[in-house]
Design a protein that fits this description.
Length: 270
C-alpha cells in the first residue's frame, strides 16, 4: 500500500519539498507519495488527527507550525527539544508522533569544513531559523555573535542556547562585528522587501543566506561582487530534507539530485 508523506505549512504552495522528495522516492523505488498540505495556524493538531486515519508515514513541518509540531509529539529528539521546534514528524501509531529537527544537521552538512578553532560566526537575526543554527554551531564549539533588530531577542537566544563565548547585540552594529567574522549567516527577512546589507570585502570569507531564489538574489549578488564565498538556503533546504528522508526510510538520498531538481525548477520560473 502506498504510504503518505507531506509538508505542512501556511502558505505552502511555493514549497519545493514535494519536488525533492517525490524525486527521491522515484529514484529509490519506495512506494510512497509526498504532498503539500496547507493548514492554517492553530489547526495543526487537528490536521495530525486527520492524517492518522490515512497511511501516513511522516510529515515535514514549516512556518508557522514548528512549535506546534513539537508540542503535538509524545517523543522528541534532543535537538528538537532543545531548539524548541520540530520540522520532521514520524507517525508511530496509536496517536503517537516522534519529533525531530533536521534543520541543525542540514545546515552543518552544507556549511563546508570550517574549524571551531579558527572560525568566528556572525548570525544576523534571532528568529526560529536562527535557533537551530545557534544550537548546531554552539554544539560544535563555534564562537558566535547574534545581532537582531530587537536586542532583547538576541540576548534571550544566546542566554538559552549559547555558551560563555556567545555575544549578542543590535543588528545596527553589524559593521562593528563583521570584520572579525569568518562566517556570516543572514537569517533575517529583509530580502522579502528587497533590502540588503552593505558588506565589506569578503576576501573569500563565507556568506550564507538561508533564503533562496528571488528573496535572496539581491543580497547574494552583492556578496559575490564583494568577494564572499556565497551559499544560499537552497542547499540547506535539500540537506535537511535528506536527513528527514533518512529518518523515514533508513537510507540517505542523493543530495546532488535533489539540489539539481530545485535549481532547474527555479530557473524555469525565473
Amino acid at each position: 500500500m502506498t504510504k503518505l508523506l507531506g509538508v505542512i505549512g501556511d502558505p505552502i504552495a511555493h514549497s519545493l519539498s514535494p519536488l525533492i522528495h517525490n524525486g527521491w522516492l522515484r529514484d529509490m523505488g519506495f512506494n510512497a507519495t509526498y504532498e503539500a498540505m496547507q493548514v492554517p495556524d492553530g489547526q495543526f493538531a487537528d490536521a495530525l488527527k486527520l492524517l492518522e486515519a490515512r497511511e501516513i508515514l511522516g510529515v515535514n513541518v514549516t512556518l508557522p507550525h514548528k512549535h506546534a509540531a513539537l508540542n503535538a509529539s509524545v517523543e522528541a529528539s534532543q535537538a528538537a527539544a532543545k531548539i524548541g521546534a520540530a520540522n520532521t514528524l514520524t507517525f508511530k501509531g496509536d496517536g503517537r508522533w516522534h519529533a525531530d529537527n533536521t534543520d541543525a544537521p542540514g545546515f552543518m552538512a552544507v556549511l563546508g569544513e570550517p574549524s571551531p578553532a579558527t572560525d568566528k560566526v556572525l548570525i544576523l537575526g534571532a528568529g526560529g531559523s536562527a535557533r537551530a543554527l545557534v544550537y548546531a554551531l554552539v554544539n560544535q564549539g563555534y564562537p558566535i555573535t547574534v545581532l537582531n533588530r530587537t536586542v532583547e531577542k538576541a540576548k534571550a537566544l544566546t542566554d538559552e542556547l549559547g555558551d560563555e563565548k556567545s555575544v549578542y547585540g543590535s543588528i545596527k552594529q553589524y559593521k562593528d562585528h563583521i570584520d572579525k567574522a569568518t562566517i556570516v549567516i543572514n537569517t533575517t527577512s529583509m530580502g522579502y522587501s528587497g533590502d540588503r546589507l552593505d558588506l565589506p570585502a569578503g576576501v573569500g570569507r563565507t556568506f550564507f543566506d538561508i533564503s533562496y531564489g528571488k528573496i535572496s538574489e539581491t543580497q547574494v549578488r552583492h556578496a559575490e561582487q564583494m568577494g564572499w564565498a556565497v551559499k544560499d538556503g537552497l542547499t540547506m533546504l535539500v540537506a535537511q530534507a535528506a536527513f528527514s528522508f533518512e529518518i523515514w526510510f533508513g537510507e540517505r538520498p542523493s543530495f546532488e539530485s535533489g539540489l539539481r531538481r530545485c535549481r532547474n525548477a527555479l530557473k524555469a520560473v525565473s
